[in-house]
């Protein structure tokens, strides 16, 4: 699989992209034969870039993210990433029998960090996601927002150059989601990570990204993209965010109408 074969970044060469998606299509076998879900997607995520992939439910966003993660293979085309991406999903997927700290330490261990350094690094990561003191907390003792912070710290523990996020805040209430948007923006600017973030929420896409990619439905194709030229940190209720969201929503509605979903 292309992702697994991706070269590690070489410090002596300048890296052009964190992820490169070239003419990628994906079909699944369905009751009515092969169903084309993604059609000829080409997209680069630059080093340090924050890109959101926006589209209606069922348009193939998760499918594309899973392909970039190397969890599945494209039917056609190529995907390369610099190193192995870190993943974060809507469900936190933390191990409930481990504490917050041990969940993060496990990721460090899998990355090969020696035991003597793990505790210190875990504390640093907890501080980065503003969960200082939560090391010994069990998953069930944490709120939804805190769980997603631990999941973020665990993803960051992998020390990847690219973070793939699949609607990670969709199950949170609006205030918690707002706060996590702020944290993610701060962490992104502090770490220089590349982020490919999937959402069906237009405002969230505009709040976070430098570039918004709109996918059409059935099959998923890149319908349009926008560069978001609004200074960070933004707020979801800022006028320029709202203005661009209205424009993008119009396009998204057009895509949905064209495909007769509503
Ligand atoms: N493993 C699979 N087998 C068959 N069909 C799938 C599989 N994964 C996704 N699909 C189909 O692909 C389409 C896109 O799904 P998905 O990528 O989950 O959409 P999104 O994340 O944008 O909501 C849906 O029609 C879904 O039923
Ligand atoms: Mg999805």
Structure description:
- The chain has 262 residues and is α/β, with parallel strands linked by helices.
- It folds into 2 domains: 6-85 and 162-258, P-loop containing nucleotide triphosphate hydrolases (Rossmann fold, 3-Layer(aba) Sandwich), CATH 3.40.50; 95-159, no CATH class.
- The chain is built from 8 helices and 9 strands.
- The strands form 2 sheets. It has a 6-stranded mixed β-sheet, with helices on both faces. A 3-stranded antiparallel β-sheet has the order 2-1-4.
- Helix 7 crosses helix 8.
- The longest helix has 20 residues, at 239-258.
- The radius of gyration is 19 Å and the shape is globular.
- Bound molecules: adenosine-5'-diphosphate and magnesium ion (MG).
- The site of adenosine-5'-diphosphate has 10 residues, from helix 2.
Hetero compounds:
adenosine-5'-diphosphate, magnesium ion
Q: What is the CATH top level name of the largest domain?
A: Alpha Beta
What's the N-to-C terminus distance? 37 Å
CATH superfamily of the largest domain: P-loop containing nucleotide triphosphate hydrolases
Organism: Streptomyces albiflavescens
Pfam family, one: ABC_tran
Domain ABC transporter: 19-244
InterPro entries: AAA+_ATPase (IPR003593), ABC_transporter-like_ATP-bd (IPR003439), ABC_transporter-like_CS (IPR017871), ABC_transporter_ATP-bind (IPR050166), P-loop_NTPase (IPR027417)
